[in-house]
Amino acid sequence: MGKRIFLIVLDSFGIGEEPDAAEYGDVGSNTLASCAKSSFFNMPNMRKLGLFNIDGVTCCKGVAEPGGSFARLREHSKGKDTTVGHWEISGIDSPKPLPTYPNGFPEEVISEFEKQTGRGVLCNKPYSGTDVIRDYGQEHLKTGKLIVYTSADSVFQIAAHESIVPVEELYRYCKIARKILSGKHGVGRVIARPFVGEYPNFTRTPERHDFSIKPTAVTMLDQLSENGFDVLSVGKIVDIFAGRGITDAVRTKSNAEGIERTIERLGRNFTGLCFTNLVDFDMLYGHRNDVDGYAKALSYFDSQLPRILSGLRDEDILMITADHGCDPATPSTDHSREYIPLVIYGKPVKAGKNLGTRPTFSDIGATVLDYFGIKPKIRGTSQLGEILK
Question: Model pTM greater than 0.90?
Answer without folding.
Answer: yes
